[in-house]
Write a structure and sequence with these properties.
This protein is of the alpha+beta class. Helix content is about 45%, strand content about 15%. The protein has a two-stranded antiparallel sheet. The chain binds heme C. It comes from Psychroserpens burtonensis.
C-alpha cells in the first residue's frame, strides 16, 4: 500500500487526481469506479499496456488515451493494491506480481 501510494503520486495523480475522482468525461475516476472494481484484468492491462478507445465507467463514456507508463510488474501490483483500497474502495483479494506478469496485451 505504501509503495503503491508512491507509484500513484509519481505516475497517476496528474490525471486521476489526489482524491481518485479524475476529471468528468476526460479522466475516469478510480474512486468507487465500477470498472476498476469489477474488471480486475482489464484494469491491470490498462496500467500495464495503456488503454484507449471507448470505455464506460460508472455509466459515463470515456474515449481518451492513457499511455503505458513503463512500470514494472511489482509496481503495477503495488499501485493496484493502493487504488483498489483507497477512497472508499475495498479489495481483500490482493494483486500479486505473478498475477500481473501473466496478463498479456
Ligand atoms: C495522462 C493521464 C493519465 C495518467 C498519467 C494515468 N491515467 Fe489512467 N486513465 C487515463 C484515461 C484517459 C483513461 C481512460 C482511457 C479510455 O478512455 O479508454 C484511464 C483509465 C484508467 C483505468 C480504467 C478505468 C477506471 O477509471 O477504472 C484505470 C484502472 C487507470 N486508468 C489507472 C491508472 C493508474 C494506476 C495510473 C498510474 C500508474 C494511471 N491510470 C495513470 C488517464 C491517465
Amino acid at each position: 500500500m505504501t509503495r503503491g501510494e508512491t507509484v500513484y503520486s509519481n505516475f497517476c495523480i496528474t490525471c486521476h487526481l489526489p482524491n481518485g475522482k479524475g476529471v468528468a468525461k476526460i479522466f475516469p475516476p478510480l474512486a468507487k469506479s465500477d470498472y476498476l472494481m469489477t474488471k480486475r484484468r482489464a484494469s491491470i492491462k490498462a496500467i500495464k499496456y495503456g488503454q484507449s478507445g471507448e470505455i464506460i465507467v460508472n455509466g459515463q463514456k470515456y474515449n481518451n488515451v492513457m499511455s503505458p507508463l513503463g512500470l514494472e510488474d511489482d509496481e503495477i501490483a503495488d499501485v493496484m493494491n493502493y487504488i483498489t483500497n483507497s477512497w472508499g474502495n475495498s479489495n481483500d483479494k490482493l494483486i500479486t506480481e505473478s498475477e500481473v506478469s501473466k496478463i498479456e496485451p
